[in-house]
Design a protein that fits this description.
The protein is built from 9 helices and 8 strands. It is an alpha/beta fold. The protein has an 8-stranded parallel beta sheet with strand order 7-6-5-4-3-2-1-8. The mean pLDDT is 94. It is globular.
Amino acid sequence: MTDQPARPLYPQATSVAEFAQNIADVRANIAAAAERSGRDASGIRLLAVSKTVPEERLRLAIEAGATDLGENKVQEAKRKAENLADLDLRWSVIGHLQTNKAKDVVSFADEFQALDSIRLADALDKRLQAAGRSLDVFVQVNTSAEEQKSGIDPADALAFLEELKHRDSLHVQGLMTLALFTSDTERVRECFRILRDVRDRARERDLVGPGELSMGMSGDYQAAIEEGSTVVRVGQKIFGSRASIA
């Protein structure tokens, strides 16, 4: 008996119809999770995470309705934004950013979801001021207490948000987190609750704009919605499993 290769958790979508079905399935799950938590699904944004997806497949997904796109690596995102400039798209950079890449984000991004240092805030603010524009940002909070993850410690988040008030070109929309990667659903939910608690305390001091919560990915976005997420970052459930996680 020969070993059969393991089937991918999320099959690759290779046609407009397959992408449309995947997007419809995710939106149905969003609606169901919203209903379970007594919320309106229209208040939850689906951000399609297109990292590692080549432009030819991305065009199929866009035709199927994925026009709000998230990318981890700024150079990949900038290249795609340039190559797909003929389309009406909204680009979010959702991965860790070095200060020397601030100019690249400013050149094309509509949103940056991984703000985690004053040094980076200053670099972005300087570039934005020079360009005469502003940028929507989310502050990344490390709710899992993992050393390898970027993000502000929850205990430091309010002070950090206070500092951002003096950077006029940065429009804070809310907070973002990456939950613990585990099958223990309760531990995952605890990460989401920590972020929600930080947001609620920040709201009391008018530090967090509309108070969006970007939390939840392909494996946990329904739980995230039940815990209050307003933006879910879904990649593999729309595009298919990645050969390697970059």
